[in-house]
Design goal:
single chain; alpha/beta; Rossmann fold; globular
Length: 172
């Protein structure tokens, strides 16, 4: 009598590991005040700096300008503000770029009313040290293993170096 053969079973797709617990940071800044292309360019450069930091997951509403180009039309200003307000409610912090913007001011006011920390740009096309230090603390407090390189980038603190003193005994 033949023994039953096992039928091969499909290996289920493994569940991906959860992402590192990086803070979600909303980038608020001028968009429609002044030159829209320059404002978008600047915001996206800051967004890219945050991504490269390895400590922050940024949300940049300035990317909606691409959607407007693709659709050939724009949502109304208040429609975008409602959308942005909904996103901010899910964020861990807001980063306010410099420059006049009544919309960004409204976003900061909402964040403050929700006790969401707000950081203000202190460097041009860069991320403020205050935000980086806060993001580092957020990541560590939430269990992210942060490399010495990221710690230095965020805090400016050099990794601790343990020095072992060499003891030389002279033969007598």
């Amino acid at each position: 009598m033949d023994s039953p053969t096992a039928t091969p079973t499909a290996t289920p797709n493994p569940i991906p590991a959860p992402p590192d617990p990086k803070p979600l940071v909303y980038v608020a800044g001028p968009l429609t005040t002044g030159n829209m292309a320059l404002n978008t360019n600047r915001a996206i450069k800051v967004w890219a700096s945050m991504v490269r930091s390895g400590l922050i997951t940024p949300f940049c509403p300035h990317f909606t300008t691409l959607g407007d180009l693709i659709l050939g039309e724009s949502l109304g200003y208040e429609d975008y503000m409602r959308y942005d307000f909904e996103i901010i409610r899910h964020c861990d912090a807001v980063y306010r770029l410099s420059g006049a913007s009544s919309g960004a001011d409204r976003e900061v006011t909402l964040a403050a009313s929700l006790d969401i920390p707000v950081f203000f740009e202190s460097t041009v096309e860069g991320v403020s040290s205050g935000l980086m230090e806060w993001a580092y603390g957020f990541c560590v407090a939430n269990g992210m293993k942060v490399s010495e390189r990221l710690r230095y980038a965020a805090t400016g603190t050099m990794p601790s170096v343990r020095r072992q003193s060499a003891r030389v005994e002279m033969a007598q």
